[in-house]
Amino acid sequence: AQSVAQPEDQVNVAEGNPLTVKCTYSVSGNPYLFWYVQYPNRGLQFLLKYITGDNLVKGSYGFEAEFNKSQTSFHLKKPSALVSDSALYFCAVRDRNTGRRALTFGSGTRLQVQP
Amino acid sequence: ETGVTQSPTHLIKTRGQQVTLRCSSQSGHNTVSWYQQALGQGPQFIFQYYREEENGRGNFPPRFSGLQFPNYSSELNVNALELDDSALYLCASSLESGGLQETQYFGPGTRLLVL
Questions:
Q1: Cross-chain CB nearest to A42 (options B42, B101, B108)
Q2: Given B42, B48, B92, which is nearest A108 (Cβ)?
Q3: I need a surface site. Which of A23, A29, A102, B108 has the fewest CB within 10 A?
Q4: Would you list the DSSP string of chain B?
């Protein structure tokens, strides 16, 4: 079975500081990994994904994520946080070996950026 | 915006009733996936439709059913509503080619309240 863990319910960071939102995953084969962001009363918005190749993936709005196979992690990062980055962030995984169609999501991490 | 639309935006039903939610996929996409997001949780996969056939199902009872139409739009039907069905229902469209690396793009969701 595939699963995702987001160990922090909330992350607080000051505007202009770097941010990290943590994600670890468990799959039986090799993963496809995704990050989505959800603003209040909105659906999920795609940020970036890891398929293969370079372990550092760059996405929308200055976000990037680092895939670490040995630690089974896919942490989301941004060098300089903005107040407008405050939202709910979800990590998701698909196991490319099982053929399972579903995205499995973590429970989400609320990012609060203080001015 | 993703181009995925859902209707209605909000809905209130009573226990035991039936509900139909609708989703129009992004232009060029052939696959629709449905997710249930309970308050404070990550989305949970309900099922996926590809070329008008169910193409994977999560751990939801048979009273959750769906359809996909020739134009790739989709419906989610829930019979015999229960209080625990209160949630945000998200539709995601994608262009699936069998590799599982495809990105799912989400609509804004339908918020269902069961009283």
A1: B108
A2: B42
A3: A29
A4: --S-EEE-SEEEE-TT--EEEEEEPPTT--EEEEEEE-TTS--EEEEEEETTEEEEE-S--TTEEEEE-TTS-EEEEE-S--GGG-EEEEEEEE---SSS-PPPEE---EEEEE-
- Tens digit of pLDDT for each residue in A7-34? 999 999 999 999 999 999 998 888 899 9
State residue A61 phi and psi, 5-degree precision: 60, 30
pLDDT tens column, A75-110? 999 999 999 999 999 999 998 776 667 899 999 999
- Measure CB to CB from residue A46 to each of B45, B101, B105 and give the nearest one: B105
Report the alpha-carbon distance of residue B48 to residue B55 in Å, rounded: 5
> Judged by CB atoms within 8 Å, which residues 35-54 of B form the interface with A?
35, 40-45, 48
Residues of B in contact with A101 (CB under 8 A): 33, 45, 48, 55-56, 100
**Does the pLDDT at position B99 exceed 80?**
no
Q: Which residues in chain A have their CB less than 8 angstroms from residue B4's CB? A: 43
**Integer Cα distance of A113 and A34 in angstroms:** 22
Which of the four pLDDT bands, split at 50, 70 and 90, describes residue A40? confident
